[in-house]
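**Fold tokens**
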Amino acid sequence: MRFFLVLVFFVLVLAGLQAYQKTQQGHNVPADTQNTQIKKDLQQPEWNTTQQGTINLSRVRYDSEGLSIAGLVCAPRKLKDNTPLIMLEHGGFDTSTDPKRCAEYARLGYVIAQSAYRGQGGSEGKVEACQGEVQDSLALKQVVQERLKTRGVVHIGVSLGGCIALKAAAQQKDVKGVAILVTPMDFAQQIRILRATRPDALDRWYQIFGGTPEDAPEQYEKRQPLKEAALVDAPVLNLVAAQDPLIPYKQLCDLLVVRRKADRTVKVVHLARNGSASPPVQERYICEGEGKPALQLPAFRQEDVFVTYYNLYHTSTPHMWKTVQNFVFAVAPRP
């Protein structure tokens, strides 16, 4: 009798163990599915938001081509539906995002986003100089649009950021305008200038571009934004420093030709350094076939506006930023 009870006990234990194993098999997730889920979770944007008066300032981590990229987003706390998005594209190879400019536009009623870009500001990857950074900008735009439900976008680019702005805008259909400040169109020309003025900076450029313009001309060619500039279906505001030591003035003329060949109306304006009207016009700053420039800013509509500031070097000024602001108000009105 005792032997029979022991036997029954072991049979019941064995049956329960088999039933448990079958149940677990029904709930197990294949390894490849687990890995996919983990990867998907890692790609979800991370938002760290703080309140600053009437605005929210958010530090964002997001995915761009498998890289974790840092970004900054500012928005009004009382955000209205269909608010336009401003993408601020910074210049340089070691530049941080700009919380002050971010907050400024948010207080004006816009959503503004800035990518630190790959290789900068704590982001993964390496600096690519107007290549992968374009995708970083587009990826952040998508993240912001999905979360904050913005409508339409204006790209504002400073120096190298202007190249990113033009290339990003060329790939989108909801662009309201592009504003670029002291922006290069030909990096090989910049190298030739740096050889004479900043030889100490050349090694970093050669490292990023993969060689000299003579050794790797294709690397410099593919970074030029002129081809993409022809595809931008929105007004372009181009603010140029006449005495820029890094960007030959001819590059403004090159962009002017490209935009006019793309059937865009381009209004040309010459201003004094401080933005005052009617400076003495200098013939050397008139592009071939340009005609007589205007001496004051026009009302911003759907035409391109190219502005040359006399006696100004590779920098931006308060008047430039005020002009950009008025341009944004005109092409992307707040709801």
Notes: Residues 3 and 9 are 10 Å apart (CA to CA). The first strand starts at residue 46 and ends at 52. Residues 44-331 form a domain with the Rossmann fold fold (CATH 3.40.50.1820). The chain has one domain: 44-331.
